[in-house]
Design brief:
The complex is a heterodimer. By secondary structure, chain A is α+β, with helices and mostly antiparallel strands. Chain A has 13 helices and 32 strands. Chain B folds into 2 domains: 276 residues, tm_1862 like domain (pyruvate-formate lyase- activating enzyme), CATH 3.80.30.20; 73 residues, Arc Repressor Mutant, subunit A (Orthogonal Bundle), CATH 1.10.10. Chain B is built from 15 helices and 15 strands. The radius of gyration of chain B is 21 Å and the shape is globular. The two termini of chain B are 36 Å apart. The chains are: A alpha+beta, B alpha/beta.
């Protein structure tokens, strides 16, 4: 494949608000470029993780190379790089964007611009990408393409008059999109003769090939046998194979040169050697400076993850290491809990990120996990002048040595139709939000700006937002900084024993309310035992709420169902199965999901 | 020597579905009934060949409401059964009325005439199980029963007159809006019957998914079961417990003994058929959805009526039991009986001492006061209340 004309390459991605049809458009592009026949297409080829397909969202950046014969008679190589749409994954979006020269902006013809549309477009423009819009779902009865076009021009300020009007789902207007890719997205530049300079934008672990790194070659070229060096980690290896991305498979080729997107394997066994964002160069002919890479991401949300079966601790460690490989935003370090044993404190970009990692660990690595309530990073200023970054509530120093505490604050933009402004403002108020202002984008839609404590939005803010706006509000946020706040640690006692894994930090004003709800919730989650179990919430040793799990007095099935023993046995098995998902705390069996119960305290749901 | 076997016959028809009922049963027109009975008789004839080495020890005709089909048709099913199976000892003329074979049938008040009862008796049925549930007409109405207490009294005396000497009465406790004293009234009324029923089944109402009662009471039921909170319409847990104690106390005073979690009888009148289930004897079920266990293979007929009527092969599920499953069953079924399981029997059946398999479970539950462990393992009084909790621990 050597000697590819750079002018015939287009490296691009698709950005959109969630559910505006990005993955579907990607599928259509792959289909129409003839790489696969319709019959071979599984729905949504790019979303190849089982989890992604189930949830209908794209988690990991993925890439595919297709060949398009344009109307000018020339064949163009398209490297399509898929990006996640959710606010939690801005970091992943950045990584993908760095491998592209342009982006297709997909906007739903009925819904128009949403918070994540803006966030993603700005990210793309920040990366100097050429962005052109397409209006999707024009076949919906509620589609208003003219209105959306005007909105794109007004709000984003990019030209949209000749935006293709398409329906990715029904294959309308796809040809137009492909032509626009050829004409509106620039061909890559970069000197093929210069020393190798390639950006790692993703990587996966394969048990046969070792680590497979996904690169965008910016300058020079790489081929089998090239000795490469990772500029940040210094690891040096000989390239075993280079190639590009077919749909769901790796296709080896002779060489990757400036402007190309592909993969490299170099029998890299150690996952830590390949940091996403690092620059790959030729060890024998290195480039002078690495690429800028990405800004380092800080975890916003932390929680403890423990194997349900203590013996699986090493498995959990290996799994986290592998996940970390293609998810640089995942952080973890070992910790110990009195209640839960050995585990890890893990840092995530947001709650969805947390949930996805948790599910991937459970599904792909077959681990049974106990996860503690997520929290944010607090800054604890001690009277002796020390400052502690607190990620685990159990490590909070004694109140007597704390001077003051700070919590992270985000600036949030919420886009909402005017009829729901009231209820959304109410929600932000309840979550200790500070109102910054409001802008009308058009008559019926407004953009609300708030400052909110991060710990008020990591639990269920998104759900509450959706339910109080009947799904119409959209939301994006950026970390603004830290502010002093009156915070306390809320402890939970089960059967008079403090359970460290259930402690969390909360604003002093809402401690009582949270404690009460937490006790109620736990009362519901903890099954009855042969004895009575008190559940208490305490702040600084003082009990502020209490509930009681009544003793079990009866548990008997009377009926016999005419000799249908199997049915009876199934009921007993269900009961037995339930017991397996329990954690023993003192003499009390606590269901694993109870440790997450602090998440579900919103009354309004 | 022929091996003993029990037979269950399912009649999936009723006059009207009760509010709490999740059994395989529904009203049907007479054509459907006839078609069904033809298929049922076909099934009995066809399968009988496989049981040549067996002799029938008990028969149980359940439903639904077996008395909802015309009695001569039901008696015909029994004729077919007698022709196809070897019953008791080989004395063709007398075997029908022999007491040696227990032949039970469920009957609902208001669906049987004196003539029908005499015919049932003549066809060989020697034990009648009458579904009373409650002696309070308002409670009966709430349950969606089609009969009154007076209807029951009539059916009961007709049954006695027709020669039934072995009669069970079904009672149900913990009904919506029922108070312990209402329930006590029902029990007392039943104990006033003369002659006394030989057997009384007393169940607590279970709110099953998919029933009209579940729509009404499902949420409060589940909440009560899970947390013990007092529900709005159903009796509280404490009241329900009290009803349990009332059953025990009143029936004991009247000379009944509790031989199984929900069953009481006068001495010698334990339901032999039901004991076959708990003691893992072989039984074969005929009819829609009927379950069987023969030589440690459990199988079951299709629960789909059109399929049952159409298909030659009615059996849709066959599950040979592993040794482990047999042991589990031995324990959780055996523990339903007051006498529990016999250690020696376990050892003889499985070739290993019970302690080797269940030593720690038995010990732990004995320590908690839930099991009595001597030559036999059985539930204590407290263990009886927590029967499912204890039984579940014997599953691996």
């Amino acid at each position: 494949m050597s000697g590819i004309d750079q002018s015939k390459i287009r490296n691009f991605c698709i950005v959109a608000h969630i559910d505006h049809g990005k993955s579907t458009l990607a599928d259509r592009i792959i289909e129409h470029t003839g790489l696969l026949t319709s019959r071979e297409m599984q729905a949504q080829v790019l979303d190849n993780m089982e989890l992604e397909r189930e949830r209908g969202i794209t988690i990991k950046a993925q890439a595919v190379r297709t060949v398009y014969r344009a109307q000018d008679g020339e064949e163009y190589i398209f490297n399509l790089i898929d990006t996640p749409g959710h606010v939690d994954f801005n970091y992943e979006v950045s990584r993908s964007l760095a491998a592209c020269d342009g982006a297709i902006l997909v906007v739903d013809a009925a819904q128009g611009i949403e918070a994540q549309t803006l966030a993603n477009v700005y990210l793309a423009l920040d990366h100097d990408l050429d962005v052109f819009p397409v209006i999707n779902k024009i076949d919906l009865p509620s589609a208003q393409p003219e209105k959306v076009i005007a909105e794109i021009e007004d709000v984003i300020g990019i030209e949209a008059q000749d935006a293709p009007l398409i329906s990715a789902k029904n294959g309308i207007g796809i040809e137009e999109v492909l032509e626009a890719v050829v004409h509106k997205i620039p061909a890559p530049g970069g000197d093929v003769e210069a020393p190798l300079k390639a950006l790692i934008f993703d990587s996966v672990y394969d048990s046969y090939k070792g680590v497979i790194v996904f690169v965008r070659v910016k300058e020079g070229s790489v081929r089998k046998g090239t000795r490469i060096r990772m500029m940040a980690t210094g690891a040096t290896q000989e390239v075993v194979e280079v190639g590009y991305f077919g749909a769901g498979q790796f296709i080896p080729c002779d060489e990757l040169s400036a402007g190309m997107v592909g993969y490299i394997t170099a029998s890299i066994k150690n996952v830590k050697d390949t940091a996403v964002g690092d620059t790959v160069t030729d060890a024998d002919n290195p480039c002078a400076e690495p690429l800028p890479g990405y800004k380092k991401v800080n975890s916003m949300v932390y929680c403890g993850m423990y194997p349900a079966d203590g013996a699986k601790y090493p498995d959990l460690r290996d799994a986290l290491e592998k996940l970390k490989l293609n998810d640089a935003s995942l952080h973890y370090e070992p910790e110990t809990s009195i209640a839960l044993g050995f585990g890890f404190r893990c840092g995530f970009l947001g709650l969805l990120h947390l949930e996805i990692i948790q599910e991937r660990l459970e599904r792909e690595y077959n681990l049974d996990l106990v996860t503690t309530a997520p929290g944010v990073v607090y800054k604890v200023h001690c009277t002796n002048g020390d400052m502690i970054e607190l990620t685990n509530p159990s490590n909070l120093p004694d109140p007597s040595v704390i001077d003051f505490m700070e919590e992270p604050i985000v600036s949030a933009e919420i886009m909402v139709t005017t009829e729901f402004i009231g209820s959304i403002m109410e929600l932000c108020q309840e979550r200790r939000g500070k109102y910054l202002g409001m802008e009308y984008l058009e008559e019926t839609r407004a953009l609300l700006r708030y400052e909110l404590p991060l710990n008020e939005i990591i639990y269920d803010f998104f759900d509450a937002l959706k339910s109080r706006s009947r799904g119409y509000a959209s939301f994006d946020y950026d970390l603004k900084g830290y502010e002093q706040s009156s915070l306390v640690k809320l402890d939970i006692l089960i059967n008079r024993e403090e359970v460290d894994a259930l402690s969390f930090i909360v604003h002093a004003d809402s401690a009582y309310e949270r404690g009460r709800k937490m006790c109620e919730k736990l009362k519901d989650e903890i099954p009855r035992h042969l004895f009575e179990i008190p559940i208490q919430a305490a702040v600084g040793g003082k009990i502020i709420a209490r509930e009681t799990v009544k003793a079990m007095r009866k548990d008997v099935l009377a009926k016999c169902y005419g000799g249908d023993i199997t049915r009876k046995k199934k009921l007993l098995e269900k009961q037995k199965e339930g017991k397996k998902r329990m954690r023993q705390i003192g003499s009390v069996e606590v269901p694993q999901k109870a440790f997450m119960s602090v998440l579900k305290l919103d009354d309004r749901r | 020597m022929k091996k003993p076997i029990s037979i269950y016959i399912h009649i999936p028809f009723c006059i009207k579905k009760c509010q709490y009922c999740d059994f395989l049963s529904a009203p049907a027109d007479s054509r459907t009934q006839e078609e069904y009975l033809r298929a049922l008789e076909g099934e009995i004839r066809k399968k009988a060949a496989a049981y040549r080495d067996y002799t029938v020890k008990t028969v149980y005709i359940g439903g639904g409401t077996p008395t909802a089909v015309p009695y001569e048709k039901l008696c015909h099913v029994l004729e077919v059964l007698w022709q196809a199976f070897s019953i008791g000892e080989e004395q063709p003329m007398e075997r029908k009325i022999s007491m040696e074979v227990e032949i039970s049938m469920e009957a609902n008040p208001g669906t049987v005439s004196g003539e029908a009862l005499r015919e049932y008796r003549r066809a060989g049925i020697n034990r009648l199980s009458i579904g009373l549930q409650s002696a309070d007409d308002r409670e009966l109405a709430r349950l969606g029963r089609i009969h009154s207490y007076a209807d029951f009294l009539e059916t009961y005396s007709l049954a006695v007159q027709a020669g039934f000497q072995n009669i069970n009465v079904d009672l149900m406790a913990a009904l919506p809006k029922q108070k312990p004293r209402d329930y006590a009234d029902t029990v007392k009324k039943v104990l006033f019957l003369a002659p006394k029923p030989t057997h009384i089944s007393a169940y607590s109402l279970i709110i099953e998914e998919g029933t009209p009662f579940y729509e009404k009471y499902g949420l409060e039921w589940e909440r009560r079961e899970r947390t013990g909170e007092t529900p709005l319409h159903l009796p509280s847990e404490e009241e329900e417990r009290e009803m349990y104690r009332i059953t025990e106390k009143l029936l004991k005073e009247a000379g009944y003994h509790r031989y199984e979690i929900s069953n009481y009888s006068l001495s010698g009148y334990e339901c032999r058929h039901n004991k076959v289930y708990w003691q893992r004897g072989d039984y074969v079920g005929f009819g829609l959805g009927a379950a069987s266990m023969v030589e440690n293979i459990r199988f079951r007929n299709t629960p789909d009526l059109p399929c049952y009527l159409r298909e030659e092969e009615k059996t849709v599920e066959r599950m040979p039991l592993t040794q482990k499953e047999q042991m589990e069953e031995f324990m959780f079924l055996g523990l339903r009986l007051t006498e529990g399981v016999e250690k020696k029997a376990f050892r003889e059946y499985f070739g290993v001492p019970i302690e080797e398999i269940y030593g720690s479970v038995i010990e732990e539950n004995a320590r908690k006061g839930l099991l009595k462990a001597g030559d036999r393992i059985s539930l204590t009084k407290k263990g009886t209340d927590l029967g499912s909790y204890v039984s579940a621990q014997f599953l691996q």
